[in-house]
Amino acid sequence: MEYKLIGPEHYKQVLEHLRKSFFADEPLNKAAGLCQNGCSNPELEDHCLEALQDRMSLMAVDEKASQDGKCKIAGVVLNGILRAGDTSKALEKLEETCDADFRKIFELLHRHNLKYNLFEHFDVDAMFDVRILSVDSGYRGQGIANELVRQSVAVAKKNGFRLLKADATGIFSQKIFRSHGFEVFAEQPYDKYTDADGKIILPVEAPHIKLQLLYKRICNEGKDREQAQ
């Protein structure tokens, strides 16, 4: 398996991978009924392209299965740069969307991030945001997701980030992030996320029971090293 940065020439294939391996099965997407397996969702694809354009996302490629100049993508991790104020702007923009299911998902994510402000807590202006982790069903169980996260940490270090964050929506990604030194900053149980009438907004299926906001500090500056001791 070869791991490489995702460039613009790969965007179409990455989106094809996500339609088949992530969009329908991700816990929040599935709970909201956002889209069917293999189908597109314009709002979600725009969200993915926004991360890809930061040029810090990675893919795992099975070179042996690649053919006719087209690489076989086994997994991807979409990483973006999150700056102070971005989440507030994204929440405002969300009011313009006509997709009620998409709005349900990202209202939860954005409001959870605003409630627990990592920028203020860690005194940073920007964070390395691990947004989507996806592995093709035919390649699961081979450590690909672990390696994608490991290499994402390396990319963050190389680009001078002091803090990584991830909104982990399912139990499997939560375990992977914690195994790489991410710590839980805040949680939101799905059965406690309700509307004014007490109805659960996103009825996520077990074993996925909560959203976790996770973080990892990178001690790549003298100040950070002193604080970590």
From TrEMBL:
Which pathway does the UniProt entry assign to this protein? Aromatic compound metabolism; melatonin biosynthesis; melatonin from serotonin: step 1/2
InterPro entries assigned: Acyl_CoA_acyltransferase, GNAT_dom
The catalytic activity of this protein is classed by the Enzyme Commission as 2.3.1.87
Please name the CDD domains in this protein's record.
NAT_SF (cd04301)
Q: Which residues form the N-acetyltransferase domain?
A: 133-182
Q: Which reaction does it catalyse?
A: dopamine + hexadecanoyl-CoA = N-hexadecanoyl-dopamine + CoA + H(+); dopamine + (9Z)-octadecenoyl-CoA = N-(9Z-octadecanoyl)-dopamine + CoA + H(+); serotonin + (9Z)-octadecenoyl-CoA = N-(9Z-octadecenoyl)-serotonin + CoA + H(+); serotonin + octadecanoyl-CoA = N-octadecanoyl-serotonin + CoA + H(+)
- What is the top EC class of this enzyme, as a single word? transferase
Q: Is Acyltransferase tagged as a keyword? A: yes
Cite the entry's keywords alphabetically. Answer: Acyltransferase, Transferase
UniProt GO molecular function? aralkylamine N-acetyltransferase activity
- Work out whether the entry's keyword set contains Transferase: yes
Q: Which family does it belong to?
A: Belongs to the acetyltransferase family. AANAT subfamily.
Matching entries from PANTHER family are given as: ARYLALKYLAMINE N-ACETYLTRANSFERASE-LIKE 7, ISOFORM A, N-ACETYLTRANSFERASE-RELATED
- The protein's name: aralkylamine N-acetyltransferase
Gene label: Dana\GF22216
